[in-house]
């Protein structure tokens, strides 16, 4: 596979010790991030994998909404709830059974075998008529640990920081790729969310366009700047801190709060206490603090009920460009569980009209999460 072209004018640099790099049988990239004193020993991937076909991913423009839709038929073939002894994310020391051909690892990142987006491109343009365009971009999988039965919340602080470093490294690298407009690190945890691999992992997308949520938030931020001369997210954070009723935890570098207009039954936002665009902008001390508060929140989530809370984690990151200059890095943690026995389903109002109806008071959720600290 040819190397990805770098975006002109972007500085891409090593943020942590350079990962150990390898290749999978079909040419996909494999990167190992390791704790001090640990040296990964990847073996040759000997699986007979077919060559990937980038044409399996398309972008189609919905003129009724002005939004792009990704069509990725290849994803129909992705691995679905395999038994634990056939997990493709566990170490595979023989090179015949796993996406991670190595006896053991700490954190690993690799290109998704069944990607939503794949290949390289340039600036995306809306076509005339019903014309699909190549679904270029980048989709990666990040495994937080080799422990199949663990979770992010189970990680030691140093290991959680290693995951953050891997997110940061991939953010810097993907933001420098030609045609990538937005980098999104995320995790889905729990079968209730739709997870098909129980091994603790997340994903990293490099989109060739600004996602609809990001575009809306940036437009709101521009309007706020024009009206008040200040950054929307900074003002929002300041008001949440002053009010205090929805603040869950606060450190010298980060604040976690349930938003005033929370859409999900359990929803917590994590903001750095100073304006930054993305993980690349954070100092070493802030990265330590971020790993700690992130772990703290996930552990509170798991203490809410008798079983671990299914959740989605979304890292909102922005590039330092004119179009994204008002973007303020933050994390959203969300769960569809609205009680110990009931789930929140996105039915007609949410799915068809994007009009969320919340079943719980944000202040009550914040109080409950504070109690669990």
From TrEMBL:
Keywords: Carbohydrate metabolism, Galactose metabolism, Metal-binding, Nucleotidyltransferase, Transferase, Zinc
GO molecular function: UDP-glucose:hexose-1-phosphate uridylyltransferase activity; zinc ion binding
Catalytic activity: alpha-D-galactose 1-phosphate + UDP-alpha-D-glucose = alpha-D-glucose 1-phosphate + UDP-alpha-D-galactose
Domain annotation Galactose-1-phosphate uridyl transferase C-terminal: ranges: 224-372
Binding residue positions for Zn(2+): 87, 90, 148, 199
Cofactor detail note: Binds 1 zinc ion per subunit.
A GO-annotated cellular component: cytoplasm
Keyword flag Protein transport: no
Cofactor: Zn(2+)
Pfam families (alphabetical): GalP_UDP_tr_C, GalP_UDP_transf
Active site location: 201
Pathway in which the depicted protein is active: Carbohydrate metabolism; galactose metabolism
EC number of the protein: 2.7.7.12
InterPro entries registered for this protein in UniProt: GalP_UDPtransf1, GalP_UDPtransf1_His-AS, GalP_Utransf_C, GalP_Utransf_N, HIT-like_sf
GO biological process: galactose catabolic process via UDP-galactose, Leloir pathway
Galactose-1-phosphate uridyl transferase N-terminal domain sequence ranges: 55-210
Enzyme class: transferase
Family, as annotated: Belongs to the galactose-1-phosphate uridylyltransferase type 1 family.
Name of protein: Galactose-1-phosphate uridylyltransferase
Organism for this UniProt entry: Mycobacterium branderi
């Amino acid at each position: 596979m040819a190397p990805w072209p770098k975006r002109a004018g972007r500085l891409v640099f090593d943020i942590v010790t350079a990962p150990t790099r390898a290749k999978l049988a079909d040419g996909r990239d494999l990167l190992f991030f390791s704790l001090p004193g640990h040296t990964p020993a990847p073996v040759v991937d000997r699986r007979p994998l077919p060559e990937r076909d980038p044409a399996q991913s398309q972008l189609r423009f919905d003129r009724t909404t002005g939004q792009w839709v990704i069509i990725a038929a290849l994803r129909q073939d992705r691995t679905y709830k395999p038994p634990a002894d056939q997990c493709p994310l566990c170490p595979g020391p023989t090179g015949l059974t796993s996406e991670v051909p190595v006896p053991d690892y700490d954190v690993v990142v690799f290109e998704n075998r069944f990607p939503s987006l794949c290949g390289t491109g340039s600036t995306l343009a809306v076509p005339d008529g019903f014309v699909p365009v190549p679904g270029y971009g980048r989709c990666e999988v990040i495994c937080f640990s080799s422990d199949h039965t663990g979770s992010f919340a189970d990680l030691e602080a140093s290991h959680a920081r290693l995951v953050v470093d891997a997110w940061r490294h991939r953010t810097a690298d993907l933001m420098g790729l030609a045609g990538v407009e937005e980098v999104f690190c995320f995790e889905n945890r729990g079968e209730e969310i739709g997870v098909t691999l129980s091994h603790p992992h997340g994903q990293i997308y490099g989109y060739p366009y600004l996602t609809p949520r990001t575009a809306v938030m940036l437009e709101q931020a521009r309007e706020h700047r024009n009206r008040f001369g200040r950054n929307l997210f900074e003002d929002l954070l300041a008001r949440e801190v002053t009010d205090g009723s929805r603040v869950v935890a606060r450190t010298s570098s980060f604040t976690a709060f349930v938003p005033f207009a929370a859409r999900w039954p359990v929803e917590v936002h994590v903001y750095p206490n100073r304006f930054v665009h993305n993980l690349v902008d954070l100092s070493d001390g802030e990265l330590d603090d971020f790993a700690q508060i992130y772990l703290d929140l996930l552990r509170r989530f798991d203490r809410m009920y008798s079983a671990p809370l299914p959740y989605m984690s979304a890292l909102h990151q922005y590039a330092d460009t004119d179009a994204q200059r008002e973007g303020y890095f933050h994390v959203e943690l969300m769960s569809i569980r609205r009680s110990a026995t009931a789930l929140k389903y996105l039915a007609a109002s949410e799915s068809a009209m994007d009009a969320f109806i919340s079943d719980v008071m944000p202040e009550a959720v914040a109080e409950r999460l504070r109690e669990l600290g």
